[in-house]
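From the methods appendix. Each design record in this collection lists the tokenized structure first, followed by the designed amino acid sequence. Records were kept in a plain field format so they could be parsed without special tools. The example shown here is representative of the layout used throughout.

RECORD:
FOLD TOKENS (441 positions):
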């Protein structure tokens, strides 16, 4: 027995050494896999940030993998990372050459270990348009020669109607993707690519955002309306505070709304402009410009009208309670079914698809509203775009969330997604941060 034991001892020790080395390799491979998974997730999560690009995602993935995979001896593995899809996934490969102790006896001094991991953004990525109405026909509707161009972001309708998205005539909607909780009506050639059907409805991504609190009313005084008796009597339905000359306005609560008209040229100081119990109207060759300005609509009567012959250039605040929000409608505001008919006569009010009524209307029919930088959030309102020229095309980014979104005539609504080219933040839940991260491999 002693002789047999002596003869078997080297074999037993060798098997024990091999088992221990194998266990060590399994443990190391698990560590590398964990590092690769963390790296791919960290990399793809960069696309949820406003200033992210492919290079940033790759750098983050590589740094994460190298930090987590470094062993006690200080060995740093080899890491390769690549962006896949259209800013929707990151693939990571981590490899390492591990020296063997027992393997040297078999002329195998080392072995290569390689692991892979892929993470993707799941769901709607880079959301830039969402129609919230859960039932309406044509919650997102475009007709005639209307165009929506959103090549770097996605369009979505929460309506479960068989025609939750409608396209008619020569309209075109071109996006990264289009998705509807129900179905769509119109030729598939209108939508590029064709909409995905029966998508799960999205929770309102801004449902938790709180609006500002109205304060004492702003008094503009007499001198801001030098043309009061020129070109007709001013209709208070278009706003009690009237500007018809050159003016620089300050943030505050504009009780009864704000009407900029008769060739007025108005610039806005940065801040929040609260339209309480009245609309915001720009018409009759007037212009409205403002940087880092946000508009909050609340009270018994509201709405918006940028008439055909108006010039509008606005960017949302970069900080504060309305950071990233250009237009924000009070969710509890009562319906205001009375339409703001354009004084120019253009864009006669059309009923909402499906004969839905009692919605506040926010009408952009200006042929010169090319900068609308920020998020347009109208949770109970109907956004109508009815111009003949590009809208928002000079904005770094524009996001639209409204109960209904209707495009008529021939506008080209451009929803850019150049999030990193502006200091105006994108609200959480939209733009680049609207998707969940999932490991797929």
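DESIGN:
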């Amino acid at each position: 027995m002693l002789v047999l034991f002596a003869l078997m001892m080297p074999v037993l020790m060798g098997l024990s050494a091999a088992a221990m080395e194998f266990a060590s390799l399994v443990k190391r491979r698990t560590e590398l896999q964990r590092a690769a998974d963390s790296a791919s997730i960290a990399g793809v999560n960069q696309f949820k940030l406003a200033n992210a690009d492919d290079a940033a995602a790759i750098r983050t993935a590589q740094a994460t993998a190298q930090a987590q995979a470094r062993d006690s001896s200080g060995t740093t593995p080899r890491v390769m990372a690549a962006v896949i899809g259209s800013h929707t996934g990151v693939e990571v490969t981590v490899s390492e050459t591990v020296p063997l102790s027992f393997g040297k006896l078999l002329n195998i001094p080392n072995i290569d270990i390689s692991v892979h991991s892929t993470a993707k953004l799941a769901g709607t990525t880079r959301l830039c348009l969402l129609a919230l109405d859960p039932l309406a026909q044509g919650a997102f509707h475009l007709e005639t020669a209307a165009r929506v161009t959103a090549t770097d972001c996605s369009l979505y309708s929460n309506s479960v109607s068989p025609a939750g998205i409608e396209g008619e005539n020569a309209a075109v909607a071109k996006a990264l993707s289009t998705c509807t909780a129900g179905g769509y009506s119109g030729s598939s050639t209108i939508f590029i690519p064709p909409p995905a059907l029966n998508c799960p409805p999205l929770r309102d991504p801004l449902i938790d955002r709180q609006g500002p609190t109205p304060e004492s009313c702003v008094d503009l005084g007499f001198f801001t309306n030098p043309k009061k008796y020129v070109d007709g009597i001013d209709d208070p339905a278009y706003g009690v505070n009237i500007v018809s000359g050159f003016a620089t306005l300050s943030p505050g609560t504009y009780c009864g709304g704000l009407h900029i008209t008769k060739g007025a040229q108005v610039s806005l100081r940065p801040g929040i402009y609260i339209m309480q119990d009245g609309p915001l109207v720009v018409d009759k060759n007037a212009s409205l410009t403002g940087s880092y300005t946000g508009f909050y609509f609340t009270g018994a009567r509201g709405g918006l009208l940028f008439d055909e012959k108006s010039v509008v250039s606005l960017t949302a605040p970069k900080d504060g309670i309305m950071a990233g929000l250009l237009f924000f409608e009070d969710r509890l505001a009562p319906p205001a079914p009375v339409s703001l008919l354009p004084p120019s006569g253009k864009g006669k009010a059309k009923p909402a698809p499906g004969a839905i009524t009692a919605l506040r209307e926010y009408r952009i029919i200006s042929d010169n509203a090319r900068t609308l930088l920020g998020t347009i959030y109208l949770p109970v309102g109907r956004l109508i775009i009815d111009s003949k020229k590009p809208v928002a095309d000079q904005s770094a980014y524009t996001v639209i969330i409204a109960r209904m979104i209707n495009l008529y005539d021939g506008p080209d609504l451009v929803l850019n997604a150049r999030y990193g080219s502006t200091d105006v933040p994108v609200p959480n839940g939209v733009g680049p941060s609207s998707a969940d991260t999932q490991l797929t491999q």
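APPENDIX NOTE: The first strand starts at residue 78 and ends at 84.
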